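SAMPLE LOG
Freezer: B-3
Tube label: C17
Construct: single chain, 394 aa
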Amino acid sequence: MKEFELKYGCNPNQKPAKIFMKDGGELPIKILSGRPGYINFLDAFNSWQLVLELKIATGLPSVTSFKHVSPTSAAVGLPLPEKLKKACFVDDVQDLDSSPLACAYARARGTDRMCSFGDWVALSDVCDVTTANLVKREVSDGIIAPGYDPEALEILKSKRGGNYNVVEIDPNYIPAEVEHKDVFGITFEQGRNNFKIDRELLSNIVTKNKELPENAVRDLIISLITLKYTQSNSVAFAYDGQAIGVGAGQQSRIHCTRLAGGKAATWFLRQHDKVLSLPFKDDIGRPTRDNVIDGYINKNEEDVCADGNWQKYFTSRPEPLTDAEANEYLSSISGVSLGSDAFFPFDDNIERAFRGGVSYIAEPGGSIRDDAVIECADKYGMVMAFTGMRLFHH
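STRUCTURE (predicted):
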């Protein structure tokens, strides 16, 4: 296939639209089901690069959930603790632990479930049946992978009345070293961002504390690779093999950090005993549960638990999660890793990171206020590495 005609571009009025290779060659993809659109393919090709790079860097099956050309999360195939299984709505899957790819999917899709509603999924490995069954029951626009087990493909092709978008990409495809983009009739040209993110990138530790354990190395690599394919400015919190909060596309870095930190806090609080024991009615769908849990955690009482309202969702009125309970729970958390796609210009980002349980930081450095940022990190005993490399993505 040399080109694929799209229904329209970013919006219905933007026609004609298609994807093709500028050199006239074959597209490195097969469309196995559905008819992906312009934004679907933007998500597909960005998300595939992320999981491919993450698999190479960690050696583990990797998955990301994308929405509007930024990841909601990315994760590697580590087993899930029981509380996390329940928080991700996968505690009913008996064979989950037998598939590292399915574990990675459960983590990535379960991180920011509200933002992942209607997502695009990328898998680093051939899709197996367990992973396909997990994808089938979520609201999603499509998936890209290097291959599909025959039974897994049939499961996915049955989704959305047979219209679910399933794309297979050639894992050996290597893009041209120079890329182009047209804006307002003007063509931009640049070299591809082939910068390698690995353990060596974290060797320049600038804080007094220089003890960087291997699990933090892994999580910092996950956060940085996630940021490499996130619309800038961006900050990512990572923990236990997955990005748990992504602050994307903000003009101010502190807003990135606040946004990512807030999402990370929600991820942690979804595993609070009060949240896990919410008495949902049996007929409440998964997306509705996501919205209700978010409202419950973030104290939107008028939407969730107000008089005359809670009966829509619960068999009995739940006890509120008080600020004191939430703060006590969150204050016990540490060991979180944080990556930033550009330097921190002020130490307010470090203060906010500390309140989010961050112990390890990777950022480029190079600010005129680096000394103040390092001093703040030292105040909290953090480990901070300067990578020397900006990771802007637009």
